[in-house]
Amino acid sequence: MTNVVVVGSQWGDEGKGKIVDWLSERADIVVRFQGGHNAGHTLVIDGVSYKLSLLPSGVVRPGKLAVIGNGVVIDPHALIAEMDKLAKQGVKVTPDNLRIADNATLILSLHRELDGFREDAASNSGTKIGTTRRGIGPAYEDKVGRRAIRVMDLGDLDTLPAKVDRLLTHHNALRRGLGEVEISHKAIMDELSSVAARVLPFMDTVWLLLDKERRKGARILFEGAQGTLLDIDHGTYPFVTSSNTVAGQAAAGSGMGPGSLGYILGITKAYTTRVGEGPFPTELNDEIGQFLGERGHEFGTVTGRKRRCGWFDAALVRQSVAANGITGIALTKLDVLDGLDELKICVAYTLDGQELDHLPASQAQQASVKPVYITLEGWKESTVGARSWADLPAQAIKYVRQVEELIGAPVALLSTSPERDDTILVTDPFED
User: What are the entry keywords (predicted)?
Assistant: First the structure.
């Protein structure tokens, strides 16, 4: 048996929720290892829909342990609100089914405000990133700036005031520069004091917990958020998130060694979408793009923002396969392509007359590349609910095989509807 890392291979929103749900049923522990509450997914269990943005998916399944690792930035108010919302749906979150890393960084109100100040200023200057204004980036900045307030600090009121002073020395200088009102020491202390009693019972030494469970043979599922092309290093910078989203972060963001990761499953949508600003070589601003958006219900789980849609970009996913060390992919939303006369797949780009087999790192070049397409015949039959290869039209199978060949990774799972059982299993990641 092996542990499994789930990562998005595009710009996020690839349909990880359904796949993670299917895998979490068979895992013992589900670990979030990066990001914050700026991304999310929907799980449907026994007809009940659960919308999660910070809590790992294992928390809604009896007998599973959900873990929020040190690589996650945690808004304690958002965490408490999410737990309370689940309680109303009959899911009780306790230390028996949730643990939070003691060394995880907290998102505070000043982070959310700074996120908004900057985005508003950027909107006026044409440099807007398209953040969710949830304070994710500023919290990560404080983490690497070594002035963050961490979960463990909630339990040490003797040392907390000095840490808040250090944090405010930085933030109030920024607020003065932006022409905003400074924040008082008492306001932050009150904010932290108001959540301490709700958060501290879940605190644990997560790396040690996971190491012990691994040695006992527990199946561990590492659950990523966002997608590879939003990675702070490997994505379409600066239009990215503020953390590493690639599979290697599962080790750093949980405290487990890379040798513990096992199977890397890349969730891959059968076409391409992205939310927010930034380059998108295969974007379709026409009736086909509209068709994909409407058929695929392309709206963000957390923000409700409409997603931009385009043809499948094999060149981008090929990069993701390399950056993550992807073992196999879960290809989702194949059914959205039903009924199209023809389908296009981007296999390379052209830039200033030269052909490139990858997306360059330069922001200017990313904005200037043009996709090189191959065209495949579409299919009129429905693929919705297919649970075996025999249920698929011949042209749909041809499309899947072409994707496999172009990205250099096999399809391990094929999803043909939002329903969890409408999945064709080729390779079981936990048994590979």
Answer: Cytoplasm, GTP-binding, Ligase, Magnesium, Metal-binding, Nucleotide-binding, Purine biosynthesis
Q: Collapse the DSSP code of 268 into the 3-class scheme (helix H, G, I; strand E, B; otherwise coil) and give the result.
A: strand
Beta-carbon contacts of residue 284 (< 8 Å; ≥ 6 apart) = 292, 309, 310, 311
pTM above 0.90, yes or no: yes
Residue 57 annotated as binding site: no
Name the CA radius of gyration of the chain, rounded.
22
What's the pLDDT score for residue 16? Answer: 87
Residue closest to 270 by CA, chosen among 312, 327, 298: 312
pLDDT at site 130: 65
Which of helix, strand or coil describes residue 151? Answer: helix
Q: What is the pLDDT of residue 183?
A: 97
- 338 part of the active site: no
Q: Which residues of the chain have pLDDT under 50?
A: none
Q: Which of 21, 37, 41, 171 is catalytic?
A: 41
CA angle 213/215/220 to nearest 5° reads: 50
Model pLDDT, residue 301? 60
β pairing state of 342-351 and 354-356: antiparallel
**Residue 228, marked binder:** no
Give dist(CA 52, CA 72) in Å, integer.
14
- For residue 333, CA distances in Å to 105, 284, 372, 418 come to 35, 17, 23, 8
- State the pLDDT at residue 120: 81
> What is the structure's pLDDT at 415?
93
d(CA 275, CA 355): 27
Please state the domain extents for the chain: 4-103+203-260, 106-199, 268-425
Residue whose pair of structure tokens reads 């028996």 in the numeric block: 96
Residue 41 a catalytic site member: yes
Q: Are 148 and 131 in contact (CB under 8 A)?
A: no
Residue of 37, 64, 111, 143 marked active site: 143
Cα 185 off chain centre by:
34
Instruction: Fold for 4-103+203-260, please state it.
Output: Adenylosuccinate Synthetase; Chain A, domain 1 (3.40.440)
Which one of 3.40.640.10, 3.90.170.10, 3.90.650.10, 3.90.1300.10 gives the CATH number of domain 268-425? 3.90.170.10
255 carries a ligand binding annotation: no
Any catalytic annotation for residue 64? Answer: no
The answer to whether the CB of 135 falls within 8 A of the CB of 105 is: no
- Binding residue per annotation — 171? no
Reading the block at residue 274, the tokens are 């992205």
